[in-house]
Give the backbone structure.
Amino acid sequence: MIEGKKDSTNKRDILLITILLLVVGGLFLYFQLFQSTGEANYAHVYYGSSNDPIVTIDFVKNEIVQYSQQDVPNQYGSFPIIDEGKRTITLLGDYEINGVRQIVVIQYDFGLKTVQIIEEESPNNICSREGASTGKPLICLPNRVRVEFETNDDSDFTV
Amino acid sequence: MMILISQCDMKQTRKMILLANFLAIAIVLNLIESAIALSPVPGAKLGFANVITLIILYVYSFKDSTALTLLRVILVGLLSGRLLGPTFYMSLSGAAAAIIAMGILKKTNFFGILGVSVVGSIFHVFGQIGAGIFVIGSTAIIYWMPLMLLLSIPAGVITGLIGKRFVSVWDTWHNKIEN
Amino acid sequence: MKKIFSLGLIIFSIFMLSGCQSEKMYTFNFYDYMDTYIRVQMMAPSESDANKYHDDIDAIFSMYHELSTSYETLDEDSIYLENIYTLNQNIGQRLEIDQELYDLLIFAEEVKEMTDGYFDISIGKAVDVWKDVMEEQTEGFEVGDHVYVYHYYDGEKTEENKILVNQTGVVESVQRDEENESIILSVTLNLGESSITIDKDDAYKKEISKALYDQAILEIDALDFSENSILLETEQDQYYATFIGEDIKVDLGAISKGYATQKVYEYINNLGIKNFSISSGTSSIILGENQNRAEENFIFYVSLANPYQTEILDKATYGTIKVKNLSVTTSGNYEQYVLYQGDRYHHIVSPFEKMPVQYYHTVTILGEDAGLLDALSTALFSMSPEVMETWLNEYQESLNIEIIRFNQDLTIDTFLFDTEFEEH
């Protein structure tokens, strides 16, 4: 290797990294600053690659709307299971332990307008580490379960 | 002639053994990273196993690196019992995007190993996000992209520095053995 | 090494910048008071200040909760003398009460006079009748049940296939899932001249039975509120209340939340804090200034919930107002109700009819005193449009209040001064 060439590639590398940092950092800050300050109106719970939610959590009227059943093999019973007392929605995830699919338990709070995945089996339970979200989509990839919020930027309160 | 052929064979075998070792290390790195779960998105990875991909790219060839990386992804999938699952597709897509980007960039000879590594890290994120959109069926995962990109840069720098050190040591060591 | 260090520094500062703020906005959540979720957001110079504010505000809500509840007695070690529950258990008796409860009852009686009796806290027994009806409503569909159909789709769910019905039908048959009996696929209804079959894509709601409705009517007819009165006296520094009437039961549900929230507002105002918001349940809010909208003069965007959502895809809100430094209260029939012959029966009961009346779906009031607004929104909900307009002619200006009402014919009327209201 020629010493001179090494130096110039080194310099270019550093320049590249600095530029990338600035661009990505700027992108990141931009997204952070433009976070919606409005409250969530709905949180839609999806399974698999479907674009129709299975359950919607309605934060305006404080109720749960279920559209359909999850399409699961008979031996698992019927999903989703909605428990309004414990404020949870349970779906059957894709993640299997010894060939048995595992459940994903989602908890909602009408007052705080949050949704949180509280129980699930996935490598190291990373899905339930995301915490309560007021707008950030909750994505549990190994189970193919996701929760997306519908927020209204033009609304600070709804009465 | 005979000596040359046998030297060729030996070189090949030694290369095979070395590659096998590298593969093992890559698999272990991948599994460790899954266990530590550094990534903000459940299921995605920052790509520390890519350090092996990077090293093979510089020390051997693009073809070798591609083959090894693909093997690594498949073997990890088999080992963790989740072949053809969502995380498998994301790993595959991410690794493929990374190695292709790194291969092309290296060919231009414009940047050093550090720059190539960082670009590889960034494309690793793109590849995962792309597959993620298919797997999860929505663009919601793009929400996480800025953060993942931001984290991938230092990750790329670290793997790049490790790779750079390794390559310079390798040059000295490998040439010593060959002679 | 230097490279990594400076890299680390840059990343660190980026993270720090994104979380940077000077004085902080604190959020206090209260779950235990007055059957509702209360959220207070206010600016505080430090964490210890915020903790003090939280405790003081908690004490205010806690006090009014204990005093105004009609469900249980005071705790044994309570510092208060009596609460509404015990007063209701001792009709005709003159009991000594705390000044705060006395003030609240005086206020409620003043509003009763101001609204010519349309606001009346003594009709608790009528409210209970309809509360019981709401609880009797069962789930599921059986042959013979009544179902009100808003509209249905003849075939695929498209705008062209939408057919308006707005009628009550009787269930003729129920089609269930073969493997799972509890899953109902569709229901066939007899609408008189015709029959239709509806499924989950259509807009409908089960009604209460005629038997249940008739029973409720019998019960309210048996109630006589003509003798109801609340006697409030004060001697030296003591306060007394006597509840009089055969069918009197005092229910402060339509005023205690707003009243307590107003007291909390006064506390925050005395601290001189401008950036705050208090929301009690989904119906009553008091707003200061919104620090997030500096470029728009610190206003809040407040959306008004659409009470006539027959389908989840319908708009969630029907309009937005831009406001600050005031109180907004909404009374509505859409959160909890049962249907009978297409009409909604809920907890806002007219003191004259002893049942919910069918003029509006929501009445939203903007003004300065949350306690007053809470009571007024209940009172106005039971007034016919003519009565309301006459009343507003007399009081709107002097009370400085503004009204937006969503009528049952789905039109919207506004009585605004200079507040901006935008329909969606």
